[in-house]
Structure formats: structure tokens, C-alpha cells
Amino acid sequence: MKVDGKAFRTIWLSDDGWAVEIIDQTRLPHEFEIIRLETGIRAARAISDMEVRGAPLIGATAAYGMALAVREDASDAGVEDAHAVLLATRPTAVNLSWALDDMRALLLPLPVPDRMAAAYARAAQISDEDVAISRALGEFGAELIVRAAESKVASGKDGPVNILTHCNAGWLATVDWGTALAPIYVAFDEGIDVHVWVDETRPRNQGASLTAWELGRHGVAHTVIADNAGGHLMQHGEIDLCITGTDRTTRAGDVCNKIGTYLKALAAHDNNIPFYVALPQTTIDWTVSDGIREIPIEQRSAEEVTHISGRTDDGKIARVQLTPNGSAAANFAFDVTPARLITGLITDRGICDASEEGLLELFPEQK
Amino acid sequence: MKVDGKAFRTIWLSDDGWAVEIIDQTRLPHEFEIIRLETGIRAARAISDMEVRGAPLIGATAAYGMALAVREDASDAGVEDAHAVLLATRPTAVNLSWALDDMRALLLPLPVPDRMAAAYARAAQISDEDVAISRALGEFGAELIVRAAESKVASGKDGPVNILTHCNAGWLATVDWGTALAPIYVAFDEGIDVHVWVDETRPRNQGASLTAWELGRHGVAHTVIADNAGGHLMQHGEIDLCITGTDRTTRAGDVCNKIGTYLKALAAHDNNIPFYVALPQTTIDWTVSDGIREIPIEQRSAEEVTHISGRTDDGKIARVQLTPNGSAAANFAFDVTPARLITGLITDRGICDASEEGLLELFPEQK
Fold first, then answer.
1. pLDDT tier, A93 (very low <50, low <70, confident <90, very high otherwise)
2. What is the ipTM of this complex?
3. CB A315: neighbour CB atoms within 10 A?
4. Which domains occur in chain B, in start order?
5. Whether A318 and B321 lie within 8 Å, measured CB to CB
6. B256-283: pLDDT as tens digits
7. Residue A299: closest CA among chain B residues belongs to which residue?
8. DSSP annotation string for B21-63
9. Does the beta-carbon distance from A224 to B328 stay under 8 Å?
10. Is the pTM of this model over 0.90?
11. Which of B297, B321, B336 sits opposite A310 (nearest CB)?
């Protein structure tokens, strides 16, 4: 998407054709800096230090990391070392191991001199495939926004289509377009008048920092709100639909997403507001049905609750403590929204009911 | 309640018998400082600068402010001037105008030489009455906690009674005991094993700062969580009951309280967890029925969302910006929880259903 008029992806080959460039997401939203990755080791650090984040982008970065590593050492040992180092960067990202296994399986059977070119080509392909998936679900989802705009006009209401989103499921989490935000970007680019209510998404504030930044840079109207505010806005007709992403979707349509998603789905249900979840099919875990009982929820550092970082008046990044000394804090990273609260799932194959029947209609091979 | 073993109220007469002392709540939770008020003007600043906050405490401070002012000038003009200056400190606090009108009505008919003693006596009485109200609702509410503890034991469950609260409705917002926290303090002082999940309560973080501080200083076990986390905890049996305060309660039992209360009530309802609201009868607005339609919701500065203050590693208080430059923010201060989601209202006359019938049983004079 665009950053102040210029088109970007989150990862791309540099002009010299061999190094890889990324946006340093740890410095957003206050600074926009591009990092040049020249080695597999440096790509690994980009993942472990969260300079890149979001499962699809982590996968693409790992693939390019393999290409950079093979450029230095294309031997079997070189491929295996790069695989191991890159795999150790983040504990649970499914796309990470998938991309690395894919690259290794491609490279090892090839003659050593052919490996470098193949690695670069496959990394580019993995990136392009991710863009195509995001674009596809963006187009399906945009139809919902177009319909919401039409029904607003039909009922004589003024103003933009108001969409609530939670966390960051935008182009910064993928290679381009995003998941939850892809329908919004497609609709916006088609000229639909949209406005996004951005949950700040405590404790890591991905909404207030990343979602607000990327919407603003692309030119999409948006307003940041405390996570507490969505229910009030829904009660007063200020939200036309909700779209979130998901980290893991069960066979039954339950959605495990950033903590707090469940509360917004409850409020949407209570106010008859459509609540959609956008997802590439890779996030569907066909082995799990009951999300609340079966999905373990990661607990992260309490410091993410007790402390927060931001920019001081003199432009420095500083971290401050919010809680009194001695008060414990707990930090659950995700929650599970039961399928009964979800209006539909926006996938790269189309939109379906959040249910096993709905998903199997789009994915009959999983029957 | 206690601060590290020593009993405090939020406002008291100093040892010399004429000045008034308060806790500087703007410096909590990082610093505990006592301020000495010697003039009516200084008392007015304590209210306007939010060194004291919470409707009952504002009322008590205004009453003592009148006493301090009358000490300097007990003439009719002195009484009227003090009334006007103190009334202008905060725009909407009902207790403020009530306490000031009460003091003026008492003082003006008296001979000038009798006014000072009468003013001090009435201010002390207003404070004591507030303590009695909080203590009464605390005792009614504590029965719910005792019963929850008993039913935990009966069903063979270990551990404390887990109570979720939102915002700060503790002793810091009243003269002592609090409203939502009064039942918890009474139960704790009776030896019941309690643990409080404290919503941080964005954007002003009254939970993470004030509620965590006062629970910690009194010795009550507690854990601060992001406002997003309560639904997940309820899904997993980690919350036995919820108690919040209220700024305004309608005749029908709707509750207007800090933004985000509605989302927690929805989650409690979805998980069959009791959701109680504690209130002194003075917060009931008998002229309003439908809270969502009839109560206007204050919008506060966007800076409370885009910026936050805390303590840096070197002990200074600093403010940092969380959002990108150019992103708008909205800041709705309250939301309305419909009575259908509320299990019961804990008042200083007892506990009743959140309904007009329930309220009128306790307050038959309002029929």
C-alpha cells in the first residue's frame, strides 16, 4: 500500500537485486526507516527482534533469509544451518516453519550452483502468493463494504461506512494489503467513503501504532479509540460493521485472535451489527473444533501491561511505568470468539458462514 | 482504609484542628503525598486540579472549603463568594452543588460569630455520613462475597473469590471504604480470601493507578489486566463475580459508568457470572428511565487517548505520545449498561434487582 503517495510492500528486493529491504516496524509509528538485510543471520534477527511481524510477513522474510544465506553458502550444511537459525527466531509462527521447510525441500535436491537463483525465485514467489491471497480476500470483503454503503444511501443516511477493527491485521502484517484491512483498502481504492474506528489494542497497542499509521499513510480516514469504547459506539449507530483478523480459526469457525476481540463480537451481536473475520486459508486449523476448550492461550510478559513506550515531547522514545510498584499484572495475548458471534468468515476463496458447514462449502477437500 | 498499616481517610482535619489535609491523588500511584489546605481558595484548586476526585470526596472537600473560607470571612458576602468559587471548580459533579447549597443554607441564617464552628461541624458531618453510606453498602455487598466463598467451598474449588472491577470506585473516590470496593474491603477485613482482577481502565487508567494502589496498600491481593482481558478470564472460570461503581443510575436500573463497563457486563452475561453495581442512593436519577437514549455522554480530550503519563526508569513522571502524528482520536468517558445485563444493585439500603420494581421496593418514597 502507499506511504504518503509512494507504493510499498513490507519486504522487497533492493535495487541492486540481491539484498532485501524491510520497514523497521519496531520504530513505527513515530519513525519510518528502511532496513537493508544482506545476510541470513541479519534476516533472522529481523524476525526475532520483531522488525518484521505478522505470520505471512515472517514467512516471506524467512524465505528471503534462506536466499541470503544460500548466497553466502549454498552447500547442504549451509542450507541446514540457515533453516535451523531462522526457525529458532520465533516460537509459534506456523508460516515460519512452513516457508523454511518449503525452501529446504526445494533447494537440497538441486545442484549446488543452481540453488541461489532458485532460492531467490521461490522467495519472490512466496511473497507474490501472499499478496495474491490478501488481494483476493480483500476483493471478497470489499463487496460487504460496497453493500453497506449502498444500504446507507438507500436508508437516507449520510456519511462514510464506519468499520471497527481490532489490533493490526493490515498490510504491515502481510506482504501487502493485509487481512482485516484488505477489504478496506480495496473499497477505499474503488472510491467508497470509509472511516475506520481503530481499537488501540492494549497492551501492545498495535492498533494505535501500526493500524493508525498504515491507514493514515494510505490516506484512509480513521479515529483511534480506547478498547473500552466500541460498545458505546455500537449502541449509538456509529459502527456499520466490524472486521478483524485471526491467528487461528477452528474447523467449527471459532476464532482465536488478539485479546479483546471476543468483547467486540459480543457488543456487535448485542447491537445487530455484522461482525466479520478475514483470514487466509492457512490460518484454519482443521484439527481443532472447540476453540475455547482446545486452544491454549499464550501468556506474555507482565511488563507489557505495567509499562508502555511512546514518544516524548522532545522526540525521544521512552518507556514509562503505569502501575504502582508491587502490583501484579497478567497478560493473556489472545482470546477465542465463538462462531455463534461471527457473521461470516472472509477467506481468499470467498465469504462463508462461521461454521463447519460453511467452511466445508468453500473447502470441500477437508470433508 | 489502610496505607501500609496506617488508617487513612481521603480528607481529614489536621492535628491543629483547623486546616484540612488530603492525599494528592494526581501523584498516585507513584508518590504518596499529603497536601495541607488552609484556605477556601486552596480547597477550590484541590478540586479543579483533581488532587481530589470522585463525587462523594468532591462534596466533602467543598464542604470543608466553605469552612476554611468562613474562617477567613464569615460575612454573607464571604459565604456567597466561597460558594461561587467552589461551585465553578468542576462542571457536572452533583455532590458538589449539593454540599455547597447545604452549607450555604445552614450558614446564612446563623449569626456571623457562630458560622465558623457550624461550618466545621457540618463539614465533618457530611464526611461522616459519606463514610456511613459506603460502610453500609459495603456490608450488604460483602454478603455476596461471603456467599460466593461458601459456594466455592461447597463445590470443592480452591482459591480466593475472584472479583473483577472496572475503573476506581474505591475509598479514594469517597471519604472512606468506596462503593464498588467497599464490599471487597469489608469481606477482606472479615478474613474472606479475595483476589481482585483490576481493569486498567483506559484511557485514564484509574484502575491501573488508583485501584491497584489502594488495594495494594490495604493488602488486598490483586492483578492488573488490560481492559481486553476480562472476557477471556470469564470464559475460563477465573472470575466469580463482577462489581463496578456507577456515575448515574436510572429509575429503570440502567447504569452509566466508566466507558467499557458495558463490554464487561455483556461478557458476564454470556458466561453466567453475576454482575453487580454498587451505588450510594444519591447517584440514582429518578427522572431518567432509558439510559442509552436519555443520558448524554461526555466527550473528553483526545489527548487522553493519544498520550499517557507514567514513571520513567529514573523516577521522573513523563508523558509519551502513543499514536502517529495526524491520527485523530475520540474519547467517550462513559457508557450505559442496560439493566437487563445487571444481576443486582448494591445500595446503602440493601441489594435489589436492577429494575424500577427492584429500586422502588428499597425506595418506596419514589413511587
1. low
2. 0.95
3. 9
4. 2-127 (1.20.120.420), 139-366 (3.40.50.10470)
5. no
6. 999 999 999 999 999 999 999 999 998 8
7. B229
8. EEE-TTSTTT---EEEE-SHHHHHHHHHTTSS-SHHHHHHHHH
9. yes
10. yes
11. B321
